[in-house]
Amino acid sequence: MLVLTAIAVVRMRSLFAIAMLSGVFSLLSALLFVTMDAVDVAFTEAAVGAGISTVLVLGTLALTSRFEKPTKRSPMVPLFVVLVTGAALIYGTLDMPNFGSPDAPVQTHVGPDYLERSVEEIDIPNVVTSILASYRGYDTLGETAVVFTAGIGVLLLISGLRLRRRRDDEDEDESEEV
Amino acid sequence: MRHHLILRVITKLLVGAIMLFAFYVQFHGDFSPGGGFQAGVIMAVAFILYGLVFSLHNVQKVFPPWLVHKLVALGVLFYAGTGIVSMFLGYTFLDYGALVPSHPSSGQHYGILAVELGVGITVTAVMVAIYYAFAGRPPRLSDEEW
Fold it and tell me: Using one digit for the tens of pLDDT, what is the confidence trace for A52-96?
């Protein structure tokens, strides 16, 4: 399903349908995360990927044109790069331990330590939250700062343009009145 | 401006429920999946949905842009402030045991709630601010072209 949606996104020219299909793609990956028992990640993917980004993409779409311009360049070079990268990634996964394997580094390093200590030290049932907010509090502070910076960046870029355009419009109005 | 009657009625019903769900995800994050990031996004969705259906002007009356911009910074300050408080109480930065020294694990509960609230405030405000920034520009596509 994921692959089919991705192929449809690449083949289509209507940007509106592409925006909707990327929402579908996010929702499908959220389902994939649920089947892998990563409920917190799935929640985020469904809310951010399928919800907010689709709305933002549609909002951007209203500022541009409706259809993608057909490109004249040959698709062979990008296709080659993508295929080589994909093959390298798949080759890399061959050495990885099986999903859920008890020997995986993820299960033998700090993971069990957190799981054992979380109950007595933090005493909340959702270990994801206790790791995120307490053991890894610095990281989450950093993530919040990243979100903050992204917001400030978008505001500076886009709101500045808006003010300038409004000023231009006012100038035109005045000249018309004269 | 009286078109989309069904959308308007359903939106009025849903906005409250979405906000309630956001608060549930925010403050129940200790016990079930969720937390500040997800709750912030869901809360922002409530405002964005209202803005999509009832126009940007109306949602900016409810949640004015100057307040959004203040909240963007307030969330990060709230998070970092929690760490500073624990430093003033003689513990290390972001060690929530400082909040209730006699019972460290309930101090952890308060600390986690506080920082998740900071995350939630920032994420909500940033998402709404980005939406305002995009939706506030005059669109080039008219409604018929969709």
Answer: 888 888 877 877 777 777 777 777 888 899 999 999 998 988 887
| Backbone phi and psi for residue B91, each to the nearest 5 degrees, phi listed first | -110, 180
Q: Is residue B140 exposed (0-12), middle (13-18) or buried (19+ Cβ within 10 Å)?
A: exposed
With tokens 């610095």, the residue in question is A138
So what's the pLDDT on residue A172?
55
Tokens 């003010």, located at residue: A163
CA distance B126 to B119: 11
The dihedrals phi and psi of A170, each to the nearest 5 degrees, come to: -65, -40
Identify the domain containing residue A15 by its residue range.
1-70
- What's this model's pTM, rounded to 2 decimal places? 0.77
ipTM over 0.90: no
Give the residue among A164, A111, A99, A53 at the shortest CA–CA distance from B137.
A164
Region A137-142: mean pLDDT is 85
Residue A166 has which token pair? 């409004």
CA separation for the pair A103, A29 (Å, rounded): 26
Q: Tell if the CB–CB gap between B34 and A148 is shorter than 8 Å.
A: no
Rounded Cα gap, residues A143 and B29, in angstroms:
18
**A67, β-bridge pairs:** A14
Contacts of B34 in chain A (CB under 8 A): 40, 43
Q: Is there a contact between A144 and B76 if contact means CB atoms under 8 Å apart?
A: yes
Q: Do B118 and A41 contact (CB within 8 A), yes or no? A: no
Each residue of B1-12: pLDDT tens digit?
A: 567 788 888 988
**Residue A14, SS3?**
strand
Name the one residue in this structure whose structure tokens are 């929530």: B96
How confident is the model over A43-51, as a mean pLDDT? Answer: 84
A57 shares contact with chain B (CB less than 8 Å): no
Residue A75 lies in a domain: no
- Contact state of A61 with B141 under an 8 Å Cβ cutoff: yes
